[in-house]
Design brief:
The complex is a heterodimer of chains A (238) and B (318).
Chain A lengths: L1 E12 L2 E12 L3 E5 L6 H8 L7 E6 L2 E2 L5 H6 L2 E3 L12 H9 L6 H14 L15 H14 L4 E5 L7 H16 L3 E5 L3 H7 L2 E6 L2 E6 L1 H4 L3 H11 L1
Parallel strand pairs in A: 3-8, 3-9, 6-7, 7-8
Antiparallel strand pairs in A: 1-2, 1-4, 4-5, 9-10
Helix pairs in contact in A: 3-4, 3-5, 4-5
Chain B lengths: L3 H24 L4 H32 L6 H19 L3 H27 L6 H22 L13 E4 L2 E4 H23 L1 H11 L1 H6 L4 H23 L11 H14 L4 H18 L7 H16 L10
Antiparallel strand pairs in B: 1-2
The chains are: A alpha/beta (238), B mainly alpha (318).
The structure holds adenosine-5'-triphosphate (ATP) and magnesium ion.
GO molecular function, one term (chain A): ATP binding
GO biological process, one term (chain A): L-isoleucine import across plasma membrane
InterPro entries (chain A): AAA+_ATPase, ABC_AA/LPS_Transport, ABC_transporter-like_ATP-bd, P-loop_NTPase
């Protein structure tokens, strides 16, 4: 059975259909890459799934439960967790505190939550920055912090919005390894990314979006051969 | 934990204060006993200002609204203590301790039943108006129940003691100590408890907090409750030396607002340091300036800080 089902999902901003009738079934433990040109609606899709935006129409079913219209914190608590394309940490708080808030979702005890947060921080490779004010982190550190906050919620589905953007290739490699590891641990991933090498390296299936529509969906190697996809998106870069 | 920048600001402000007082002693041309008396009076007045600013800064910092009902809630807490003392005959300071959870419940209820429903994407103007309405409602309810005739809460510790030759009113000393305890308690809650962590996260970025599983509306209710509890303690501690009328809280609100902006929105240490500083500035200023001169000094200082450091002394850099 599918873990996540999007049934005729649409979202309009005024007259603009940022998402138009998306139908998608995502299997448990799947790694789904999502690509598309700027403004294709990728971020909007993640925002709707995370409960931040209410869909104009359509339904979201997670693990057999209709979660359409749930608040963001409730969605996060059941394990559907997103990261931000533009990182926004709680700047006046330390890295450890940033992550501990997420850990507290499942853990009441303060020392236990801090230990949990510290483990997650080590895992994403931010160990030396634990007590730094999060506002002082460089871009690569902020990306890792976004990941750490999401992981501390022990998600079943991770919605990743361009976690590699703004990183130089040497900074990307360890994050790509980490993402592979997270997936192998049993987390389902929706991976919005512009960096094709990473998308192709990690994705089991690939969704191409264009103007809020699904343009193509399938095995990555096939999808990128598709003439329509090349026209709409890959044309310029290829 | 103090960041180094905050540390510098505290040290700087402390140095300015100490140097200023020393200068008044040395070059002010005033009798040194008079100066000592003025400093002690200023510190105690500062304690009062700290008390009335704490709840305001918390609510302002997290919910992003000025609580127009601050003054009315202060009066409400004073009457609550008056009621407990006059009807049950308990010690007013025990009544203060009891009024804190009652005011917490009141604040929590107001936020979760009224204001949370009005918080939408359109902004914070509607909850703001609710606090205005709440202010009128509380004042008039107090007027209806207790009338407009001034009442007073007798302190069992009325009287004064000598500090370095200066005379200090005991209820005011107790209020000062209470201010420091409430500020310290709030700092501990904000730094060390899961709820405090969530409150700070919501203050920094509400959307981000909701995405890590924080129920933002619950945190709003907790914050308004905590703010109201601080106001509750404040009202109770001020009652023994305040003439109790339904508008008794209003005299403090303008200066409380100045202190909150000065100290940085949402900053408890800022309210503590700012309140004491303003108290000192006002009384020491009165040695040299007649009439409302000291207040002009305070507002001059306020404008200067806004100009040099718009986020307030302890506000986060934006
Ligand atoms: N809050 C909003 N209000 C109005 N329009 C919006 C809003 N958010 C997104 N849009 C519009 O919806 C469309 C889809 O935007 P979205 O951010 O989802 O694209 P994207 O695929 O993530 O693009 P990018 O690759 O640049 O991140 C765009 O035309 C955008 O301008
Ligand atoms: Mg985007």
């Amino acid at each position: 059975m599918s873990l996540l089902v999007l049934d005729g999902l649409s979202k309009s901003f005024g007259g603009l259909a940022a998402l138009g009738n998306v139908n998608l079934e995502i299997a448990d433990r799947e790694y789904l890459g999502i690509i598309g040109p700027n403004g294709a609606g990728k971020t909007t899709l993640l925002s709707v799934l995370a409960g931040q935006l209410r869909p104009t129409s359509g339904k979201i079913v997670f693990d057999g439960q209709d979660i359409t219209g749930w608040s963001a914190d409730r969605v996060a608590s059941v394990g559907l967790v997103r990261t931000f394309q533009l990182m926004r940490p709680f700047e006046s708080m330390t890295v450890l505190e940033n992550v501990a808030i997420a850990s507290h979702n499942k853990i009441r005890s303060i020392p236990k939550a801090r230990d949990h947060a510290a483990d997650v921080i080590d895992r994403v490779g931010l160990g030396t920055y634990k007590d730094a004010m999060s506002g002082t982190l460089p871009t690569a550190g902020l990306k890792r912090l976004e990941l750490a906050r999401a992981l501390a919620l022990e998600p079943r589905v991770l919605l990743l919005d361009e976690v590699l953007a703004g990183l130089v290739p040497t900074e990307r490699a360890p994050i790509i390894d980490l993402l592979r590891e997270i997936h192998q641990d049993g987390v389902t991933v929706l991976f919005v990314e512009h960096i094709m090498a990473a998308v192709l390296a990690l994705s089991e299936r690939l969704l191409v979006m264009h103007e809020g529509q699904q343009l193509a969906l399938g095995v990555p190697a096939d999808v990128i051969q598709d003439a329509a996809v090349v026209d709409a998106y890959l044309g310029e870069d290829y | 934990m103090l960041t180094t920048e905050r540390g510098r600001i505290v040290l700087g402000l402390f140095a300015i204060t100490v140097l200023g007082i020393a200068a008044v002693y040395l070059f002010g041309g005033k009798d040194s006993n008079l100066v000592t008396q003025t400093v002690v009076t200023g510190l105690l007045l500062g304690g009062v200002y700290v008390l009335v600013s704490l709840g305001l800064t918390l609510i302002f910092g997290v919910l992003g609204i000025v609580n127009f009902a601050q003054g009315a809630m202060l009066a409400m807490a004073m009457y609550l203590v008056y009621f407990m003392v006059s009807s049950a005959g308990i010690n007013p300071y025990l009544a203060v301790v009891l009024s804190a959870p009652i005011m917490f419940g009141f604040g929590w209820l107001v936020q979760s039943t009224l204001m949370n429903r009005l918080i939408t994407d359109v902004g914070h103007s509607r909850p703001l108006l609710v606090t205005l309405g709440l202010s009128l409602l509380i004042s008039n309810t107090l007027l209806m129940i207790f009338g407009g005739r001034p009442l007073n809460v007798p302190s069992p510790y009325a009287g004064s003691v000598q500090i370095l030759g200066a005379i200090a009113d005991v209820p005011r000393i107790i209020a000062f100590v209470g201010a420091v305890i409430v500020a310290g308690g709030l700092i501990v809650i904000l730094r060390k408890s899961p709820v405090g962590l969530a409150i700070r996260a919501v203050a920094a970025n509400g959307t981000g907090a909701s995405l890590v599983g924080v129920n933002v509306k619950r945190i709003y209710a907790m914050t308004f409750g905590l703010g109201a509890a601080s106001v509750g303690v404040a009202g109770g501690l001020l009652a023994p030396f305040t003439s109790l009328v339904p508008s008794a809280g209003d005299q403090f609100t303008t200066l409380a607002f100045v202190i909150v902006v000065l100290g940085g929105l949402g900053s408890v240490p800022g309210a503590l340091v700012g309140g004491i500083f303003i108290g000192l500035l006002q009384t020491v200023g009165s040695l040299f300036l007649p009439g409302s001169g000291p207040l002009l000094l305070v507002f001059g200082m306020f404008v200067l800080v806004l100009f040099l450091r718009p986020q307030g002394l302890f506000g986060a850099n934006k």
